[in-house]
Write a structure and sequence with these properties.
Elements (H helix, E strand, L loop, with lengths): L13 H40 L4 H23 L5 H25 L6 H16 L4 H21 L3 H5 L1 H79 L5 H32 L7 E5 H18 L3 E4 L5 E6 H18 L5 E9 L2 E7 L7 H7 L9 H17 L3 E7 L3 E8 L3 E2 L1
Parallel strand pairs: 2-4
Antiparallel strand pairs: 1-3, 3-8, 4-5, 5-7, 6-7
Length: about 450
């Protein structure tokens, strides 16, 4: 959404206003240095005029020389200071402008130069303060108004008739300069908004570019993996079918191959399902529907889907989860998580072992633990499980499944954790928030 500012007060929202002031500070400093430099040059001219006009008035000459020296010092300070505080630089600008204006009054008071000197310099000062004083319009408005009141008090208290006669002209110049200052600030703020819009657009383009680059990398990786992981089992099955076609297998050999064919089909199916689910997830194709789910029943349903694979390795899957336990989650994605975790446990388990499924609940978080008795995983291996760039060959189906499972657990306001000891086994924890017990 495009940023807007209040056209009356000329202010953005708090956060954007701070960014604008930070953005404008460098310009303000440059403009203010120019103001000090011009004023210092003019003050040198005042010194020369005073020395020619009334060389005996030492007080006036010293005052003008002092005025020049202070301006030169302020110019130097403005050039070398490290500006860290927005508030400080406005206080500094106002202090400098106040010094300049009161110095003009002092020059008028201590010298006998023509009476309109203060009016002319005040008029010039008003335009400078609105356009080159380094202040925002609202600050300039009140500061200049205060200077005009000082001018009026000074003129009336000393009965300076010519100054008093210029009051209408001074007020007119104040109004004109105010309008100029107002529109100059609006131009600066509009320019800042355009810069913000371009910055946001550039950021969005960079994000889209990065996302597109990532998607292209993932696409290339998936194409490479799919071509490898599908080609290998399909070629094997094609070879077996060729042997069957020409009756080159005995009955005993055929029986041995049945199990192998079945296993290859199961692994290929699991791989394809993992790729499709992961792709669907990346495209935002899952619409989660949260509902109370009986976790024991969900686990049993998924055990039935993987028990054939477990039977081949003579692995028992023991469901120790409470019959009354419930979680609040999306059924479809939780089923994918449980099935992937079980497949991963079977794959890593040693033959003739068991996989136990347990639970605990602490502070409203229900944790489902799937423990296998496999070879275990190293710490580096655990880190690589959730990194798609590390997947290749036979690890790809399981790898995508575990990456997908972690994403789905996060979508269900939960977490997926892995603990493992090499040579002992692995425990996968599924943590569900907002669990309920019937």
């Amino acid at each position: 959404m495009e940023e807007r500012y209040n056209t009356l007060t000329l202010k953005f929202s708090k956060e954007t206003e701070y960014r604008f002031l930070t953005y404008a500070l460098k310009q303000d400093l440059g403009i203010f240095r120019m103001f000090l430099l011009i004023t210092a040059v003019v003050s040198v001219g005042f010194v020369g005029v005073e020395m020619v006009r009334d060389p005996g008035n030492q007080l006036a000459i010293i005052a003008r020389i002092s005025f020049f020296l202070v301006l030169a010092a302020l110019y130097g300070i403005t050039s070398i200071l490290k500006w860290r505080s927005i508030r400080f630089h406005y206080v500094y600008f106002i202090s400098c402008l106040s010094f300049v204006y009161f110095s003009l009054i002092a020059i008028d008071y201590t010298s006998g130069i023509y009476e309109l000197f203060l009016y002319n310099t005040t008029t010039a000062f008003i335009y400078f303060a609105f356009s080159a004083g380094g202040l925002k319009f609202r600050h300039s408005f009140w500061f200049v108004l205060a200077c005009i009141l000082v001018y009026l008090l000074y003129a009336h208290s000393l009965a300076k008739t010519q100054l008093i006669n210029q009051n209408p002209a001074l007020i007119t110049n104040f109004i004109v300069a105010g309008f100029i200052g107002y529109f100059l600030e609006r131009i600066r703020r509009d320019s800042f908004i355009r810069g913000l819009t371009i910055e946001v657009q550039n950021t969005e383009i960079e994000v889209q570019k990065e996302e597109l680059s990532n998607l292209n990398s993932i696409k290339d990786l998936l194409l490479s993996i799919v071509s490898h992981d599908l080609k290998s089992p399909l070629n094997s099955m094609k070879g077996i079918l060729t042997l069957l076609q020409y009756d080159q297998l005995s009955g005993e050999e055929l029986e041995e191959l049945k199990s192998d064919i079945n296993s290859r089909i199961d692994r290929t199916d699991y791989f394809i399902q993992s790729v499709l689910n992961w792709t669907k997830s990346q495209m935002g194709g899952f619409d989660l529907q949260f509902e109370p789910l009986e976790i024991y029943q969900l686990i049993q349903e998924n055990i039935h889907l993987v028990e054939e694979e477990a039977r081949r390795k003579n692995i028992r899957i023991i469901n120790k989860v409470s019959l009354q336990g419930k979680i609040h989650a999306d059924r479809e994605t939780v089923n994918v998580v449980i099935r992937n975790v079980l497949n991963n446990a079977i794959r890593r388990s040693n033959e003739n072992t068991s996989i136990s499924i347990q639970e605990n609940e602490i502070g409203g978080v229900r944790t489902i633990l799937v423990k296998d008795q496999g070879k275990g995983i190293s710490n580096q291996g655990i880190k690589e499980i959730f990194d798609i760039s590390k997947k290749k060959g036979e690890d790809m189906g399981t790898g995508l499944g575990m990456i997908l499972s972690k994403e789905f657990m996060i979508k269900n306001q939960g977490e997926l954790e892995i603990e493992s000891s090499e040579g002992i086994g692995t425990t996968v924890k599924m943590l569900f928030q907002n669990s309920k017990v019937a």
